[in-house]
Structure formats: structure tokens, C-alpha cells
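Appendix B. One record, verbatim.
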Amino acid sequence: MKKIFLAVLLAAQVVGAAAQTDTKPYEDKINKIEAEYEQLVATYKEIAKKQTLTDADKEKVKEIEARAEVLGKQEFETSMEIIEKFKATKFPAKYVANVMYDVEYEKLAEILDPSTGYYNEPEMKQAKDHFNSLSKRRPGLMFKDLAMLDMNDKAVKLSDYAGKGNYVFVDFWASWCGPCRQEMPNVVEAYKKYHAKGLEIIGVSFDNKKAAWTASVEKLGMTWPQMSDLKGWQSAASEAYSIRSIPSNVLLDPSGKIVANDLRGEDLQKVLAEIYK
């Protein structure tokens, strides 16, 4: 009996050691990607300190951005492979954060399957919170109305535009939000391309100071309708659409149904190009 018990124990230890060995190449690959990315960031910061950028500096910035994009794709693909291959273990828990903002709602629901071995790990809280926030703005839901004031203190509702026969891009942003300001030229480009074809954009600001809000609208070239209740994170939009970070957005179809959310950069341009082809 003792021999049988010892054999079973040794077998379990061997299996455990093998599983640990299997994860190491993936962990090493992610660590290597992150180390290179950190080096890119350090180089970028050094260039950004300069008062004037030379042509060589500008070229270097382009190289950094291109390489960072490649590394981001590699990290995403490796993290997804880890999640799929080791779903019965705790190992993927620390890598779910690498993909949670870049997958559709349905895929995130699959990743957050309670039957996985990593579901109850502490590292999963951020992904679970993000998933819960998406549940109020996931594709397939009808829009929830918002009633606020525009920049001229005139009462305006989202329903003045949504469900009226055009696609409506509802953009949640704030003047104090750096990433929002960085993304805005992309939104401006989309509006210039597709407004004449029917696209409406409604800006919903999370500002709490009217002067900062209106000044940024003008400076950033946002020529579409705006609304805000000037309550910052206490905005009615935060509860209605479970907005926990900005920039964020929802794209509504002509009937007012959500068809996409959190579209940025090339993703926004691709979706709109497909709609208005």
C-alpha cells in the first residue's frame, strides 16, 4: 500500500514539474517582449526631452512606434496562446490583462469562463471589472438615453440623434484626458470623411469645468454636437454605460442599437469604411 501511495505521489510531482517546465518558454517570451518595450519607452522619453527634434529624431520616433506595434501584437498573440493552452491552470491569470481590451465582448466572456483554472485568481479582478462594465454597452443592446446641456446651455438628448436613421458614434471623453486628446484627430478625420454620408458624432464630456470643456472642443476641431452635465466621473453617462475609463465610445446603428464599442485608431476607420463603402 505504501509503495502504491509513493508511486502516485512521485507521478504527481513529475506531472507538476513538467507543467511548470512547459510554461517557462511562454513566460520567457513575454518577459523579453516587455523588456524590449520598456527600452523603447525609455528611448522615446529621451527624445521627447529635446526642445527641437531633428529629422533623425523624427525618423527614430517612427521606428519606435512601428516596433512598439509589432511588440504589442506579439504580446497579444502569445498571451492568447497561454490562455488557450493552459486554461485548466492558474498560469494565464497574469496575462489576461494583456488581451482584455483588444477582444470582442463574446471572446472576453469565453476567456472569463468560471470553469477555467485561473478564474478565481486575484489577478483576474481587473478583467472581471472590465467585463462587467462592458455588459452595459455591449453590441446588441439598445442605446440608453442621456439628457444634458450643450455648450450653449441648451437642453439636448442623445435620442435627438440616436435611432433616427443614421449611424451615431457616441464619444465619451474629457478635456483633461490625455489619451482622449491623442485620439481626437482620428475622430475628427472620421467625421470629415463620413458626416456627409450620414455619420453623426455626439461628444459626451466628463469635464466638470465648462471653460476647459468648451476651449478644448474648439482647439481640437470637434465640430459635432456636444453635451455634458459637468459632473466629472459622476456624470449620468458613467452609470448609464458603465464608463470606468476614457476615452470610450459606442457606435449605434440607424435603429439605435449598439453595434460596436471602444473603437479607436485604425479600428474605427476600418469599421466606418465598411459601413460607408
